[in-house]
Please model this.
Amino acid sequence: MELNKTDRKLAILIDPDKWSSTDQMSDLVHGLNHSNVDLILVGGSLITNNLFDKTIQYLKLHLNIPVIIFPGNGLQVSAKADGILLLSLISGRNPEFLIGQHVLAAPRIASSGISVLPTGYLLIDGGKPTGASYMSATMPIPLDQSRIAACTALAGEQLGMKAIYLDCGSGANNSVSIEMIETVSKCIKIPLIVGGGIRTASDVVEKWNAGANIVVVGTAIEKDLNLLNNFAGLKEEI
Ligand code: 1GP
Model:
């Protein structure tokens, strides 16, 4: 999985709980095949159905877009994916999400043979508690504390992480601010992923312009699949 500091990529997050019917998946695949989406992320802070593996398999079968696991916990591993963002929740101080789940998942990740991208994951306060903040039992970084986010991201880079993910959490009221993206992006040499509460094509462009290398959209696509049409041709506009 190659990511670069010059990338401007769009990723769609698929939570298998939210795309559980065959009709939904068929519409999704049709929409994605006519979009300019660069990456598919699959995962969720809590997945209650048993469709994780099948969802990845279906997406791989019907799409020519890399499918990357965005794991909410150590159970979310599949050999059918192209890779995994191995998230360490470095904004938090809960050892379970800094290293604990990783120990449990390590043998399965190794035997799956999928590519691994060690990623420093920072939860940012998006104006409401989210599944990620609750399930990880961590306190997000306040949205106006860009310096804390930048120092945390820099520490992640110094620890050897290959990407940083700033996330307000799925369905957040507010997305990561332009100021925070600019501050963090300038501080690190590794690629920056930004997600949580991003709803429109213009939001995506703003985040790219601020320094995000990958912008992730999940909930907005669940609510309106037609939004994918707005994303088509986005890169030609900038
Ligand atoms: C959540 O960044 C992702 O981890 C996507 O968030 O669902 O709010 O788009 P949304």
